[in-house]
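Many introductory courses stop at the sequence. We go one step further.
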Amino acid sequence: MRIDLHVHSTASDGTLTPTQVIEHAAAQGVDVVGLTDHDSPAGWAEGVEAARDLDVMLVPGMEVSTKLGRAGVHVLAYLPDPAFPPLAAELDRIIAGREGRLGAIVEQLRSVGVDITVDDVRRQAAGSPAIGRPHVADVLVAKGVVSDRAEAFRGWLGYGQPGFVVRYATQTDAMVRLIVGAGGAAVIAHPWGRGSRRVLDVDTLAALRDAGLTGIEVDHQDHSPDDRQRLRLIADDLGLVATGASDFHGAGKVDHELGCNLTSPDQFERLLGLAAVNAASSGLRVAEVVGR
């Protein structure tokens, strides 16, 4: 069984619709997909309908923006009840932070001579509730300012660049508790990739486990072979589930093809089992795995 638990669609910053993601998974021989768009369950309904029609299992989830100290840490929330009031309220704050940041990014880019408007970005986002820097990057590509998203982040949107703006994010431990309270399972995405490497040491991961963390994403393109080996040992020592995933964004992210990293079936079963425990404890009507 081929299991990819971290995939994005046009419900956030991917370039394929949820239906197209499921169709692509079926064509690529991926059996299980975790649909984890940023900060929102907006793609779930379409993804569920597609999964019912195709031979693919869908795990509804989302990738939630959090902060630990001054570093950004992304938490994958699998199978929570997104209507759980404390979680829904926090997701609303995060989405509002995205909205508030957009105007500031555009203003800063215009101040250095880039011809871009908020409407340009909204058209590019095509109704996604989670408007982010990748949508701005895609506008810069379309206008010929850069050749791809990677160049846009290096020269314009990354930390220290003209279009970089800090936005609201929840404290990591608080978000883990909210996900558990909503009956879901919390997994740290790419823990040693990007800026989160410097804050996610063993002691911190142990503290997050004590807050309810279920697992860490071990096999990811941001992790070297040595990183993966060390993270797997940490997961074993702390009793955490070790997942693997592509972080697929369609054409929006190179070298992250669907299925390039996978979660082992035994770890997937552990994840589902621990999510079921949290669901039972919450007493909520949580999301369910669909298909097969």
